[in-house]
Specification:
Length: 289
């Protein structure tokens, strides 16, 4: 059996063979620990029926582990220099396709239709480029792709925010945005030493299980997210303060106060204490006004 790509020696060999230099601007920090990768693949629930979608395969460290366990793997990689390298490092696997596209611009739904069976269980697995973690995840969620779960290595601080519960330091509009679409959980914290080169920040593996239905019913999704954002606007201010500022000219203070009270929400509370259900009640009450 060939030596795994994700070892320090093999990684260095590959980089040297191709004279590859890391592009910091593309968030290139490659994984050099096979145990971590096997753990990620396990958490993702990849089996021989699964289709795996990877974002940013690099030189193929994770791609290889996915190819070994999944039915098929499709990997989006923006860096053209990596395409011939992946051709070489993944030559032993006939179930991998590399798509040389920017994930933020790609028509992911179309790529899915081209590469996977209709109704196949699909999972996104990636060690994401950290400079665009949130745009990538929000794109995947808002497009409502036919994906079962998303298991990603990201910056620890961002993972904590996405999975945060009310009344915690990390809780904010990003927690609501992500948890509206998914059940979010941090499944692993990962030391910097498993990357080459080592990043400046700590990392975690975040698991998102996509919901079939949103957890709350909102009259208007856009307005709901607008209210959430406004409520967290200035964290030290009350929700009444933040909201009346945001809705100035659209609804007067007395009416807003009445709406909040009708929705059973004390105007003196802070955004960070509100649950998703309370945000929904709040947004729906104001929307009707
Ligand atoms: N999966 C590899 C690993 O774990 O060793 C590499 C992970 S590295 C953190 C992130 C990868 O994403 C790099 O290969 C980088 O070139 C790629 N990347 C950066 N921006 C991208 C984008 N917009 N679309 C697709 N891939 C991107």
């Amino acid at each position: 059996k060939a030596k795994a790509i994700a070892t320090p020696t093999r990684t260095k060999e590959i980089l040297q063979k191709y004279g590859f230099s890391f592009k910091k601007s593309l968030g290139q920090n490659f994984l050099i620990d096979v145990n971590i990768l096997e753990n990620i693949v396990q958490h993702a629930g990849i089996d021989d029926q699964s289709g795996a979608i990877e974002i940013g395969p690099g030189i193929g460290a994770l791609t290889e582990q996915l190819a070994r366990h999944a039915d098929r793997v499709v990997a989006f990689e923006i860096d053209q220099r990596l395409v011939p390298i992946l051709d070489d490092t993944l030559a032993a696997y006939d179930n991998v396709s590399v798509v040389n596209q920017d994930i933020l611009k790609a028509d992911v739904r179309n790529v899915i239709e081209q590469h996977f069976e209709h109704g196949q269980s699909l999972k996104v697995v990636a060690n994401l480029p950290y400079y665009i973690t949130t745009p990538i995840l929000m794109k995947l969620l808002m497009e409502r792709l036919p994906v079962e779960n998303i298991t990603v290595m990201i910056q620890k601080e961002v993972a904590d925010r996405m999975a945060a519960e009310p009344n915690t330091k990390s809780y904010g509009s990003l927690s609501i945005a992500v948890q509206y679409y998914t059940e979010a959980k941090v499944v692993m914290n990962v030391p910097k030493t498993v990357f080459m080169p080592q990043p400046n920040v700590d990392s975690s593996v975040l698991q998102l299980k996509l919901r079939d239905e949103p957890p709350v019913i909102v009259e208007d999704e856009e307005f709901f997210f607008e209210v959430v954002q406004a409520t967290f606007g200035q964290r030290r201010k009350t929700l009444m303060n933040n909201l009346s500022r945001h809705l100035k000219g659209k609804i007067d203070k007395a009416e807003l106060r009445a709406k909040l009270e009708a929705a059973g929400i004390d105007p003196g509370r802070r955004g960070e204490s509100l649950s998703m259900e309370e945000f929904a009640a709040l947004a729906n009450a104001i929307y009707e006004a």
